[in-house]
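note to self — DONT lose this again. spent like an hour looking for the file last time. sequence + predicted structure for the chain T wanted, 301 res
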Amino acid sequence: MRIFQPGNLPIVWYREMNSQITSNWSYCLEGFLTKSLIFIDFLLRSGHLTGVFYCFFDNIAINFSLCTDLYEAEVNHKEEKKMKKKTKKTQKAKKQRTVFIAAGHQQRGISSTERLAPGSSRRKAKLTSGTAGVRTHIPEYKTNLAIAKATKKELKKRGYKVIMLRTTNNCPLSNQQRTKKANKSGADIHICIHCNASGASARGPLVCVPGSSRYVGKKIFNSSRRLGSCLLSSVAKAVNKKSHGTIRSDYYTTINWAKIPTMILECGFLTNPTEDRQLNSSSYQKKLAKGIANGVDKYFK
């Protein structure tokens, strides 16, 4: 491949007697090109324009000539810069987002304690074992994982990258360790999937978000609350139920150690016989997954 430098191109300059650059200043370039891939880089000596041509030919001899107006060339150059800037913005907007999904609990709890939050002297159990379905008797950790897997599938269909905390029911990490893993994962958001327990009539999704910015800082506090709001409304709509509301509290170890937007989604109540059966059915889990994905879409808009 032959490379032509600005100083040795066969260029003939034409301009008026006026020393100032005018719209009548034109140039003519002639070159004889024979390579399969030819790269031509030319620079107007005024320093006002640099143009790059990429020409693709297949061993064909070309007599190349070009005459153009400097003013028009400068306008085209400015338009090209605008287009490049617009393309960069579009590429940034289409950046793939990453979602960290943590299916709550595991097959065994961890009774030893850990700090509730950074700088706090309060301590809590590292991990509880969760509840179980009142009718199905399926333990919560299994239901959580099934919903998490359905959510991963739905999010991936929509172009998201998904990182799972666990894919089996053996994950002996404390709540603090789980959140630290999410923080270091490179994910944009952290969604913790759980099921709730209360009276037999309690029903519907619920979210837990920070109660204050004390432990997580103002930025994570605001973004975590917005994430919770987006998911709560979308999930409630997807399953056609009224939401059970939002808990705003600094009591959750999982949230207190967050460095990325983090919230807990309680998908429903395993203590409600009807909802227990629903939460453990694949069709309802798919509805939940679509609701979660809709909430994620809404958050990133």
